[in-house]
Amino acid sequence: MGASPSNLSAEQITQQGKIKVYDVNNFIGYTNTTFISDKPYISIVKDGSVGRVRILPPKTNILSTMGALIANHKTTTEFLFYLLSNFDFKNFTSGSIIPHIYFKDYKEKTIFLPPLNEQIAIANILSDLDSEIISLKNKKRQFDNIKKALNHDLMSAKIRVLKK
């Protein structure tokens, strides 16, 4: 696993450019500086909401409040993402007002890495579960909207339940 720091500030972001830039939550603009990796990589929040991770597309960049972790030949990006999603960064956090984590503090942490084929299988199972959770959340949102509309129609007497 390799790490790549970013020194890109929000002031350096433009509305046009060659390389997409992401902040903690979203795509925020472009830069013409270099990209982090030519393959997907993991961004990790190092200031504020420390330890929050996500997979970002290749040939993109991130703000300096985040770091990038790049999978090596011993692991897959997806497995590393799920592993870090459950990693407890509390012991590696410093700062009283705004928490910070530094790669140098957790880079020596020993982690269990199953064989690559097992990593792929684990990541696929967890990815399928994530997809199912998203689908169920969307269904719940649809049912909430139906209930809200039905509630309005019932309470306004637009729909009558009992016949006179």
TrEMBL record:
InterPro entries: Restrct_endonuc_typeI_TRD (IPR000055), Restrct_endonuc_typeI_TRD_sf (IPR044946), Type-I_RS_S_subunit (IPR052021). The keyword DNA-binding applies. One of its GO terms (biological process) is DNA restriction-modification system. Keywords: DNA-binding, Restriction system. GO terms for molecular function: DNA binding. It comes from the Bacteria. Residues 9-141 form the Type I restriction modification DNA specificity domain. It holds the Pfam family Methylase_S. SUPFAM superfamilies: DNA methylase specificity domain. Belongs to the type-I restriction system S methylase family. This is Type I restriction modification DNA specificitydomain protein.
